[in-house]
Amino acid sequence: MSGFTAYQEVFEVLTNSISEGVLVVGADQHVLAVNEPLLEIFGYDRKDLEGQNFEVLIPGFKRDRHREYFKGFLREHSKRRMASGRVLYGRHKNGSEIPLEVGLTPIVTDDSFFVVALILDVTDKYQREKSIERLNRELEDKVRQRTEQLNQTVEHLTRECDKREMAENKVREALRREKELNAIKTSFMQMVSHEFKTPLSGILTSAMLIEKYRETDQQEKRLKHLESIKRKVQHLDALLNDFLAVERLGAGRESYRFSQFWLGDLLREVVNESEQVLGSRQTLLTDIPVGAIQMYQDKVVLNLILSNVLNNAIKYSDEDGEIRLLAERITDQGLIKIRVQDKGVGIPRDEQQYIFSRYFRASNAKNIKGTGIGLNMAKKHLQNLGGHIFFTSEEGEGSEFTIMIPEILQQ
User: Does residue 338 register a pLDDT over 90?
Assistant: First the structure.
């Protein structure tokens, strides 16, 4: 201890006036001097430490590593703060561990070397930091939980908003369909009223006139009006049959009778029937395949489809209009393609999407007789027979309807 004796008095004056613990250790790792704050930190008396190996202040499992640190420090002789950035641990007299911060200063004299260690008990600081860390973890956990809850709430609200939007869209769609249905019902009632009222009025007029023709020589006039009544009754019967056919088709109760027949025979029958309603100045041009093309389909239903489309072309054409019926065989696809062209009133562009709807009639055809069921029936029949129908049209320039139908239906 002789090397340190010269500093003993100065050491006691300086170290007893500070709050940090001070430990002086010689090169042999024995304690040369301690101050009162250090004794308070470790719980020892002065006589228990001075002259002892300072490892008594180090936890047992850390002593080997600490010896290596101390040897390195002796070699470097540099002033440094041990374990900067982390907490070291000392051993209290009662065996408990104490978190510490330690600063080392080497003192070199002519005849000796010793180390002055400035030791600070950071138990309170360490506990506060641990407490802050714990609180931070708890806060992070709470934030995570709240975030998860918020995300779940947002997802729930998003789903509810989506459901509400879907419900609103369904309501809007239902309202739109209801409006369309109401419009169709109104149009249907107007059409039925017109289609039935005209022949019924004619029947009533003829019946009233017949009552006036009581003389024998007036028999011819009576027969004329009776014939008129018969035609009008047949017309009404045909209308009712059309309505019933549409209902059967819509309910899927339509049955078909398939047979083999020649395409040319079918087209000629349709043309002959349509010529009965052709205007005196109207022209019907046809382009029917010359070769024998045999089909296996429902001939009666195909006749009904083609007659509806061709009669529409005649009905919506001008008094001197030209109508064309063109047919061809698409051999590689096994299809028959039939086109009906006219240069009549055409279909307004914004109404074309409804043209195959039941009872729909275009706004520019209100003054022309019709029920609005022919094209609807044609489309549904064609779907059932493996075919389809489409069209192009320009208002005021005419229309072209195209029918594609398998020549042989594969059942």
Answer: yes
